[in-house]
Amino acid sequence: MADNVLEMRGVTKKFPGVLALDDISFSVRKGSVHALMGENGAGKSTLMKCLFGMYKMDAGQIFFDGKERRFNSAADAMAAGVSMIHQELSNVPERTVAQNLWLGREPRNKFRLIDHEKMRRDTKKLLQELNYHFDPNVRISSLSISQQQGCEIARAVSCNASVVVMDEPTSSLTENEVSHLFNIIGELKSKGVAIIYITHKMEELFKIADDITVLRDGKFIGTYPIKDMTDDKVISLMVGRDLTQRFPPVESVAGDVCLEVKNLTASNPKSFKNVSFELRKGEILGIGGLVGSQRTELVEAIFGLRGIASGEVVIKGKPMKKIRPRDAIEAGLGLVTEDRRNTGIFPLLNITVNTTIPSMGKYTNKIGLLNHRAMLKAAREQNQQLKTKTASMETFIQNLSGGNQQKVIISRWLMTMPDILIMDEPTRGIDVGAKYEIYLIMAELAKQGKSIIMVSSEMPELMGMSHRVLVLCEGILTGTLEKAHLNQEAIMRYATQFSSKM
Predict the structure, then answer these.
(1) Residue 502, exposed/middle/buried by CB under 10 A (0-12, 13-18, 19+)?
(2) H or E segment at 8?
(3) How far apart, in whole angstroms, are the C-alpha atoms of residue 420 and residue 284?
(4) Average pLDDT in the 141-151 region?
(5) Is residue 317 exposed (0-12), middle (13-18) or buried (19+ Cβ within 10 Å)?
(6) CA distance 367 to 372
(7) What pLDDT is stored for residue 484 in this prediction?
(8) Residue 282: phi, psi to the nearest 5?
């Protein structure tokens, strides 16, 4: 069509043992937001990496501005007018903001040397236009994750691209930062720029998308105007079945106390202070709050990853004033960390090893050698329960999609048979079908008498899966809400201001 800035026809991509893309055709209109949806492993990111020159297609054609093109590298794609914001941050930590924005395309002076002053000026101007308040001269590593994401967005915009691919761009952003991004997207649309938007968040889809294409298991399912779609229709197309419930029923509990946190204060004076609560057997205890509320810091301290200045943690009646991760695991705790890439996976180890790392002691023989066959069998069975998509258990975990990496991490801790499982953002970057599978596992664990602490930034998840919700604001526990009183307004009230008792 004449108004299409991009067309991909018959794209096929194979990996060893996997047909990742099977004859996919996909087109995007100028000045539109085109959502690309599908479960983890459906082929969304793979298709975009083929477009961006990161993967070589086995078959297919790409037409850009009506001309057939094939990009052999990301640099080729950017030079032609295609930029991409990746799901996982790709900044160079020890370089400055300015150096990251212009990496590989630095301005040069008449002597062909890098013009650092112009680079800083151009960066400052660009950041001001996007309403970002970063110093161009600071190192990327000194910025928060959301600020680093802002730099990724600025770099993509700086290319003056005709097509901008955004792969899960809001995964690390606050609500205000998401609104800011949507404003930027609106400005780009008004200039005729096409946005390819990959997300698992339904509310974003209906706020900004004009069209939607759904992929399933590497196959093209269809392209539809967003005005003709609903949540249920999109979910049904993505998973190939109807999901009549977003959350499974979570039964009420009245078990004994299995964890007590008493007046816990972090050794970092800017973190949490005097936090006290109890966790009961068979309970799913949610922890809510905004970015900076110190939720992650609190649960990591309970697991022994952060220092404690005062207070104590009591696990099954045993006080543990100086807890270490090894102590926590031995006491029956597991921790699914928030940052999958940096603190969750061992990227260059296979799925079997990633799954069995904390429980390897179970698979040693009398002389201390590992029984690899038993490890493989146990890891395969656990990952099959979570429907992890992989060609082989020998696959490096870094080669899996983000959602499938998360399933492996959850499998890892389930292998240890914990009594208490701490899950920090357990469904971040996971599609709706896989989310429901994880929710089912959580509900079943609670039914079995296991206890779960769930940190989540998603309001529906907190309300749908928790028996109770604790709310933190700037490191202070401001409120506790029982199931009957859970609603978004109450959670936000406690998350944004201290209670009158504080």
Answers:
(1) exposed
(2) strand 4-15
(3) 10
(4) 80
(5) exposed
(6) 14
(7) 86
(8) 80, 10
Tokens encoding 358 = 């904390």
Count each helix (H run) and each strand (E run) in the chain, helices first.
16, 20
Q: In 3-state terms, what secondary structure has residue 352?
A: helix
Look at residue 179 and give its three-state secondary structure: helix
Tens-digit pLDDT profile for residues 305-322 = 999 999 999 999 999 877
What residues are paired with 396 via a beta bridge?
Answer: 350
Per-residue CA distances from 202 to 209, 212, 233, 435, 500 (Å): 11, 12, 11, 13, 35
Q: Dihedral sign for Cα 38, 43, 46, 48, please.
A: negative
d(CA 421, CA 299): 11
* Residue in the structure block whose two tokens are 């969304």: 44
| CA distances for 80 relative to 58, 204, 241, 375, angstroms | 21, 28, 40, 48
Within 8 A by CB and 6+ apart from 341, the residues are 88, 347
| Cα dihedral value 486, 488, 493, 499, nearest 10 | 10
Chain-wide mean pLDDT for the chain?
88
User: Which of helix, strand or coil describes residue 265?
Assistant: strand
Per-residue DSSP letters for 452-494?
Answer: EEEE-S-HHHHHHH-SEEEEEETTEEEEEEEGGG--HHHHHHH
End-to-end CA distance of the chain: 62
DSSP letters for 100-138: HHTTTS--B-TTSSB-HHHHHHHHHHHHHHTT----TTS
Q: How far apart are CA 64 and CA 110, in angstroms?
A: 33
